[in-house]
Amino acid sequence: MSVKEINMERFRDQIRLLTLKQLHHLGFGHYGGSLSIADVLAVLYGKVMKIDPANPSWEDRDFFILSKGHGGPALYAALHLTGYFEEDVLYTLNQNGTALPSHPDRNLTPGVDMTTGSLGQGISAAAGVALSHKLSGRSNRTFVIVGDGELNEGQCWEAIQFAAHHKLHNFYVFVDDNKQQLDGPTKDIIDPLDFVSKFSAFGFYSERVNGHEPDAIYQATKRGEAQRERPVAVILDTVKGKGIPYFENMENSHHIRANDEQNRIIEKIMMTLEEKEVRA
Amino acid sequence: MNEAAANVKLDAVEMRQVYSSAVYELAQENADIVALEADLMSSISMDKIKRRIPERVINCGVMEANMIGIAAGLSLTGRIPFVHTFAQFATRRCFDQLFVSGAYAKTNIKILGSDSGITAEHNGGTHMAFEDLGLARLIPNAFVYEASDAAMLQFLIKKAAAEYGIHYIRTIRKKAVRLYDEHETFADGKAKVLKDGSDAALFASGIMVAEALRAAELLKEKGIDAAVIDMYCIKPIDQETVIRYAQKTNAIVTAENHNVIGGLGSAVAEVLSEHHPAPLKRIGVHEAFGQVGTIDYLKKYYRLTAEHIARAAEQLV
């Protein structure tokens, strides 16, 4: 499968399927926020990023940091599909002694550039990476996914100010705006207001796209590449639990310990995705 | 070093000049060295360095949490960031960042916490860190030091640059008492015995080393032969030297410009209680916050003087 010729929808479905398989195998986990980032991961790992799975620490690679670390299972699916490790590793998610913990750990998993999970920290480290490359005159880019709930953290806005001040045009922030945080709708907990105008006011090139249309995400990233003075924020209009209508309509799909009924629903979706993959 | 006590006097250079010059020299030798500041660049004389090597000194603004994250990111690309701010901002303010993006993520960050303890003087209680060593000591695999003089600070900065990991160095900003020659060597992780003694052992760090030397003189007048040991390496602690002096003197006093919980006093107590129980008194701050005042006033207020150390030793002998 050539990276450039990749069918992003199909890659997205594969990420979604393997995310479900990992979590279903384990019996519990962060379903909602993993499923909402399958599309952007498909775009980044399938089409945008310069990476070499055979050499995860390749000096010229683009960096990826999942600042919303609880989306780990989706990242692991993307890393496996890109060739960083075999599929059987996926089913060790959160098992004792695993290389795939809930939240990504750069010292355990090939392809993970930064340890994240304490919200607000990954975006700072990502800005540090981007600054370093800019100072060296290197062309590496840094991509980071932050959660909408994560943007409650003051540290995010420190990093955002910092990136804009240093004109880090090699820095791409994707906001998983799935409108839900752990305790409920973001608008009821800390209303984010308008992310696009907030990022713009902080000095970013910013736009909102449908986060479940891979090509729209890709096109927004391409428009971001035209920026020479500003970092880029792509606000992804997403749905928490995307792909499983039952989860999409759930009040709280952040962390689910699936009961028998939910498992049947998940299994049905997995079967549909598997059939789709066979046909593809 | 028996004459050390008689010769204590303030150094000609300030600790901030030592820091900024040392980082500048390292930056000249090693392209990976960068210095990060959080809007306290001029307080540590790094502003002059920034004029010389602007691209290597990054002022992050008043963003301590982000500064540690930026340092972690710089480290991911192979750079060696030195991060400075006042001790309370370098630890309390960004503890989770040091813990997760620093130590847990196994990045390579050098932290200088300045204006430590009572030397924050007129910045008062909000700025007076008596707990930074304790916090830093709780971080797995972190190296924790308190510099007692200019030569030592220079040594510690070079050591931190040469070794991978999280290094926290505590210092004062202004002039320290001169304890060592410019070319003094410090054995890796070993305490520095400034004066041997057989009746009591005074383990001190930072500005309290000079007080301990003076306490040894006061004790000498009373016929008590006290050893003075500079415990600049708070973690890992030099267990061997602690045990040796416990065996030799059976009377241990620790002295620190810090809360007695978490720092040197705790570290020495842990070694003693596990390996060689011996009577111990800890000179330091007891269950208190900081406040504004001159160093002399604060030393007396928090009972951090040579007289307090000497009295504690006398009670044990």
Notable characteristics:
heterodimer, A: alpha/beta, Rossmann fold, five-stranded parallel sheet, two-stranded antiparallel sheet, 9 strands, 13% strand, B: 317 residues, alpha/beta, 2 domains, seven-stranded mixed sheet, 12 helices, 14 strands, 39% helix
Q: What's this, in brief?
A:
By secondary structure, chain A is α/β, with parallel strands linked by helices.
Folded structure, characterized:
The complex is a heterodimer of chains A (about 280) and B (about 325). With about 280 residues, chain A is α/β, with parallel strands linked by helices. Chain A has one domain (about 10-280): Thiamin diphosphate (ThDP)-binding fold, Pyr/PP domains (Rossmann fold, 3-Layer(aba) Sandwich). Helices cover about 45% and strands about 15% of the residues of chain A. In chain A, the strands form 3 sheets. Chain A has a 5-stranded parallel beta sheet, sandwiched between helices. In chain A, helix 10 links the parallel strand 7 and strand 8 (about 230-235). Chain A is globular, with a radius of gyration of 17 Å. Helix content of chain B is about 40%, strand content about 20%. Chain B has 12 helices and 14 strands. The model of chain B is unreliable at about 1-5 (pLDDT under 50). Chain B is an alpha/beta fold. In chain B, the strands form 3 sheets. Chain B has a 7-stranded mixed beta sheet, with helices on both faces. In chain B, strands 9-11-10-13-14 form a 5-stranded mixed beta sheet, with helices on both faces. In chain B, helix 8 (about 210-220) packs across helix 12 (about 305-315). In chain B, strand 6, helix 7 and strand 7 (about 165-170) form a beta-alpha-beta unit. The chains are: A alpha/beta (about 280), B alpha/beta (about 325). The interface of A and B includes residues 126 and 127 of A.
